[in-house]
Each structure stands twice: as C-alpha cells, then as structure tokens.
Design a protein that fits this description.
The structure holds two protein chains of two kinds.
Chain A lengths: L1 E5 L9 H9 L6 H6 L10 E3 L6 E3 L8 H5 L5 E3 L6 E3 L9 H5 L6 E3 L5 E3 L11 H4 L6 E5 L4
Antiparallel strand pairs in A: 1-8, 2-3, 4-5, 6-7
Chain B lengths: L9 E5 L9 H5 L5 E4 L4 E4 L9 H5 L5 E5 L12 H13 L4 E2 L14 E3 L20 E3 L22 E3 L3 E3 L9 H14 L3 E2 L16 E5 L8 H6 L2 E5 L10 E3 L6 H7 L7 E3 L9 H14 L6 E6 L4 H10 L4 E5 L8 E2 H6 L4 H14 L7 E5 L5 H10 L3 E4 L1 H6 L22 H4 L4 H25 L15 E3 L4 H7 L2 E2 L3
Parallel strand pairs in B: 9-19, 10-11, 11-12, 12-15, 15-16, 16-18, 18-19, 20-21
Antiparallel strand pairs in B: 1-4, 2-3, 5-17, 6-20, 7-8, 13-14
Helix pairs in contact in B: 4-14, 8-10, 11-14
Classes of the chains: A alpha+beta, B alpha/beta.
Chain lengths: 149, 501
C-alpha cells in the first residue's frame, strides 16, 4: 500500500507538516481558525523528531501486523483488509491508551479535546494525498508504494 | 557605547490576524530574527538582523509576513542618499571595507534593454519552431580554417579539441565553498541532463562529482586550489580564471569557517584555513606567461581539451582578448561588471569594470579585424537574465553565454546579497549542514533543467521569428539588432543601427 515515508536527509524540522496535519483534522479546515480559534484545539497526528543533525516527521506506519489493533480493547482500532489503512473509530474508542502503549513507533497521539480518544494518521483519505506530503517544502516526505521492494 | 547612528534596513510586518505562532519563521531564520515570546504569546522580530531573504515569507503557511524596506527617511537629498549616509555610519563604526554579495546593484544602463530584435515580415518568411527543425546547439573551441576530406568523403583535417552544447548556455564558475555541496550537485546534474557545461570555480572538485566530467569545466585560478593532474583530466574543458566581473583586479577570500572537511579535501588546504586567491596569478605577468600556462595545461591533458581564459570586462578588453587568442586559448570568457560573486568589496563591485554588452561588441569587432575570430570562441556572462539577453548576445557576436545569478535564482536565491555571511537561508551560499540540506538537489536540479528548457523554447521562437533556423546563423548578425534610446557613440561601439534606421 502507499505510505508516507520520511527522508531525514531533507527534513528541516520546519513543522509545516504538523501545521497542515492539524488543519486538515480540524472542524473548520481553515488554517487560521484551526490554530487560533477552534476549541478544543485540533490535534496533529504526527510527531516531528528534531535534533542537532537529524530531523524527521513520523506518522502511523499502517503496519501489516498492527499491534494497536491487537491491543484495542473495544475493537475501535481496525485495519481495513482492502486498503491496509489502520483507523480508529472514535465512536467506539474509550481513550484507554492501550494502543498508545502498544504502538512500537509511538505514532498514536492522545486527543483529549471533546472526547478522550486516540488520534492517528489516516493518510488524509478525504483529500487524496496526505497533507503533510503535499506541503513539505523540501520533498522530505513522499507518499509511495514501496512494498514491492 | 551603545549609540547607533543608523537603523535597521528592513521592517518585518506581521499580520497578527493571520499569525498562528507555528514558529516556522523562527525555525527557518538563520539570522535569528523571529522569536516566540512565551510571556506575550506572540511572535516578535528583531529586524536589525533581517537581510530580506524572504525565507520566512516563502514558508509562512498563512502568508502573515511581509518584509519591507524601512521607510524611515533622512531629509531628502539627491546627493547624500540614504545609502551613502548609512555606508559612512557603518564604516565609521567598524573601520572596515564594505562587503557585498551578488552583482552590481547600481543604476547603470542595461544595454540589453536598449536593444531590440528583428522579425521577418512578408519578404522572408518566419519559421515555426514547433513544425520545423531548429538548431540551438553550438560548438566551442578553435575552428579550423578549412576542412579537407579524402576521396571517400571522410574528414582528413585533424579537429582541435572542442565541446558541444545543446543550448548556448553554461553555468559559470561557482566554487564548492562559495556555494554548498547540494547547489554544486544540482548544477552538475542539470548540466549533464541538458548537455551543457557547469564550472567548478576555483574550488577543486570532489571525487563524487567526477561522474559528471563530460559536462564539467575545471577552473584554474590564482590560488590553484584543488589543482592536480586527475582534476585537470576530470573535466571536458579547462578554464584559467584571470578576472571576475564583480571584482576585476582583485582576488578572492573564502573565510576559514567555510573550509570544513569536504571543502578542505576538494581544495587541498587544511581545514579551517582561509582560502586566499591572490589578485594576479603570480606566474602570469604577460601574454607570454599566459601562453606558458595555457600550454602547460594542454600538455597535462594531452591536447584533448579546449582551454578557456576568463577575464573581467575592463577598458582595454579587446586588446587583452587579442593577446589571449594569440596565446593559444580556445575560448575567451568575458565577465561583465554586473556579474555576481559570493563576496566582493562593495566599492569594487559597484565601480569597477564595464558593461558586458559593450565589451562583447568591442572584442568581437577587434578579433574580426585581426582575422583571429575563428581561432577562439567567445563566451560572455555578467547578468544574463533571460533568453532575449542570450539572443542579443549571440547577435552581437558571442558563441555562448555563462549564467550564474539566474541559475541560483532558479533554485531559490532571493538576491539578498548576503552570501558572504555564510548564513544563506536557501541552502545555496553556505556550508552549515542544517542550511545546506534546505536545498534538495533533486528539486533544484529539476528547476534548473526547467529554466534552460524554457529558455531553449524561447530562443527557438525568437530565431524562428527572424527567419533563422540555427543559432550559428545568428552569431554576429548585428543587423538583427536595433538600438533604442542610445547615442551615436554607443551605437557605434555596439555596431548596430538605431531603431527606425
């Protein structure tokens, strides 16, 4: 399946992926309103690791054998057998954070806004291409199918 | 003492209604202008550090930023301009020479903009380049006086070493050191894809770039940095740099802080040591000396590669060019006074040298008069801004053009002219790892290929409009040019008539 891959050679740690991730996962989908007005504040679904030399953005790897799905106590976390996408059904999620503990990448974040739920990368299926990839200024994020490799 | 007589050159205008405090601006500014004030929960700016490079403006996701020239004014004075006064303040406080990056900014005439190109109407049909073949390739190097063939039609004449370009454009000398490794890679790969040449500048050549040798001009300058037999044989053409348009008559200075491990290896100098290129080559004090170096290089490369000699456009350029041709050079490169640089004293950059248009016309004329024009190719640079400049240069007599500022602008340069600080926010004129990585060579290389491809299309359109189907037929065809707003002396030097004539 197509996934988001980070190339730490070109990641500047600028944070634009984070900004656009938060925007697309907001109520209004408006960058200014999402950051300055929306309450509760929308949550970005990626982590940016920054260091002296190496930076990269990390989001859900949509694993073949997802530990989060295995760990989920309510069946909210599911892997779509067709698309391979791992998603969390926020209606069923009870915010127990077992998935957060189980994820080997630390890619699941806690959304403690309206209702305590686990939030994670959904590859922006609603907008076609992940927003983080679309707005990366240095091609450090790419969206491609590398599974044949 | 804390008294500052001047004030910041720029103002940082932030639209508070749009700012989302994402801190992209502060993370991206190597000059540390922007800062999130946690107490005020607001982004603040120290505009005294701003160089107007637009990195923050380009990356701000909400377009909340604008940088404007500070509108604080002195009492109006046509003689004592704001910059004249501020320069004195600066020198009075530092005691130093004023430094600048990139080219001459002064309001001297741009002759390219005072020449117009002809087009065919009725009597000689124009050509549609999309339907008919059009040749934009050129061959640089000495041209034999005549060609001889044997009975079966094979060429008997031994051809002198030459290089072929698909488009009459080359990326001119920018050393690894003055520009980043990634900028260097982008230029090398673009030149290879476009089948043109790029130039190592005086920075030597890292082994990893030998693979682009067919499209590499290796430069030998007064500091002789990185020059060894393998280097000389790594490129397809050699260039002796005598002068540079931005700073004729003076040498170069790469500060030690830019000489990291990779630059030190390529230049063959210790890490952290200043790389100082003397003003003259200490073994060249005459045309005869120059001839010795040209032939030393030809010996070293077994007479397989053309040798270029690059000079700055100065008052007696035609006589010097004649000497260079007679000294055995295959190519003469002339760099006009608007040419760029990583660092030059501002006074030199802004006051020394002459416009490339006039130098080109005069040199071409002189070489023709002396019947040695075919012994050399003429390459001109020094602010070639677009394809029309190239067409005009070729009509004035050039074989090809050198571009550097245009190439850097294509990959992101915003002409802030602070290359010499080593803090280029665009990853071009810097050796700082965190800044270098901002220039992704995959992206930059593609942008360079796009630019030259676009220019090639435009050159074909302009040629077709004139009813010409090959760049070779335009060379020195000054009837295709007319002057606009030029006086008789200027027209005479350019060898063109005025519009309407």
């Amino acid at each position: 399946m197509k996934k988001v891959y980070a190339d730490e050679n070109w990641c500047l740690g600028c944070g634009l992926c984070d900004v656009h991730c938060r925007t697309i996962h907001s109520e209004t989908n408006d960058i200014v309103k999402a950051h300055n007005f929306e309450q509760p504040r929308p949550v970005s679904r990626l982590h940016i690791e920054t260091g002296e030399k190496v930076n990269f953005a990390l989001q859900c790897r949509h694993c073949d054998d997802p530990k989060c799905v295995e760990a989920c106590i309510t069946g909210a976390m599911q892997k779509d057998p067709e698309t391979g996408l791992v998603t969390n059904d926020t209606e069923r999620c009870v915010g127990c954070w077992t998935c957060v503990l189980a994820c080997p990448f630390g890619a699941i974040v806690r959304d403690e806004g309206a209702k305590k739920v686990a939030a994670k990368c959904d590859l922006c299926v609603q907008s076609g291409e992940p927003e983080c990839v679309k707005h990366c200024p240095n091609n450090a994020l790419v969206y491609e199918d590398r599974e044949g490799e | 003492m804390s008294l500052q007589l001047g004030w910041p050159d720029y103002m940082v205008i932030r639209d508070e209604n749009r700012c989302i405090k994402c801190e992209v601006c502060s993370k991206q500014c190597a000059n540390e202008v922007h800062l999130l004030d946690n107490d005020l929960d607001k982004m603040m700016a120290d505009e005294s550090k701003c160089v107007n490079c637009h990195r923050c403006v380009a990356l701000c996701p909400t377009r909340a930023l604008k940088i404007k020239v500070n509108d604080l004014e002195f009492k109006p004075n046509a003689n004592w301009t704001s910059s004249a006064i501020k320069e004195i303040y600066k020198q009075a406080s530092t005691g130093g020479v004023l430094l600048s990056g990139m080219g001459n900014t002064r309001d001297y005439p741009v002759y390219w903009d005072k020449m117009l190109i002809n087009a065919s109407q009725v009597t000689n049909p124009s050509i549609d380049p999309l339907r008919e073949p059009m040749e934009t390739n050129v061959i640089l190097g000495r041209k034999p006086e005549k060609l001889e063939f044997d009975d079966s039609g094979n060429l008997k004449t031994k051809m002198p070493p030459q290089v072929k370009l698909d488009v009459p454009v080359m990326f001119s000398a920018m050393s690894f050191g003055s520009i980043s490794r990634n900028a260097h890679e982008a230029l090398a790969r673009a030149a290879t894809d476009l089948n043109i040449m790029y130039n190592t500048g005086e920075g030597g050549l890292a082994k990893e770039f030998y693979q682009y040798g067919e499209n590499t001009i290796v430069q030998i300058a007064s500091g002789r940095f990185g020059v060894h037999p393998e280097y000389l044989n790594a490129g397809a053409m050699l260039e002796i740099k005598i002068g540079q348009g931005a700073k004729p008559g003076i040498g170069g200075h790469l500060p030690g802080e830019k000489v990291g491990e990779a630059v030190s290896k390529a230049r063959m100098i210790p890490q952290g040591s200043d790389a100082i290129s003397p003003a003259p080559h200490h073994d060249i004090y005459s045309i005869e000396d120059l001839r010795q170096l040209i032939y030393s290089l030809k010996e070293a490369t077994n007479y397989t590669k053309p040798v270029s000699v690059k000079i700055a456009a100065v008052h007696n350029a035609p006589a010097i060019a004649s000497g260079i041709a007679r000294a055995g050079a295959d190519i003469i490169a002339i760099d006009g006074f608007r040419g760029g640089t990583g660092a030059a004293p501002s006074r030199v950059r802004d006051n020394v040298g002459i416009p490339i248009e006039l130098a080109l016309a005069a040199v071409d004329q002189r070489l023709r008069e002396e019947s040695i024009r075919n012994d050399v190719s003429l390459v001109v640079g020094g602010s070639i801004r677009n394809s029309a400049d190239i067409v005009k240069a070729i009509a004035l007599g050039a074989d090809a053009c050198y571009i550097a500022s245009s190439a850097l602008i294509a990959v992101g340069c915003h002409m802030c002219q602070n290359c010499y600080t080593g803090k280029c926010n665009w990853g071009i004129a810097t050796q700082r790892d965190d800044l270098v990585k901002r220039l992704n060579p995959d992206v930059a290389h593609e942008r360079l290929v796009n630019l030259i491809t676009a220019w090639k299309h435009e050159i074909e359109e302009l040629l077709g409009g004139m009813g010409i189907n090959a760049i070779e037929s335009l060379r020195g065809n000054r009837l295709m040019l007319r002057g606009i707003g030029l006086n008789q002396k200027e027209l005479d030097i350019l060898g063109i008539q005025h519009a309407g004539e």
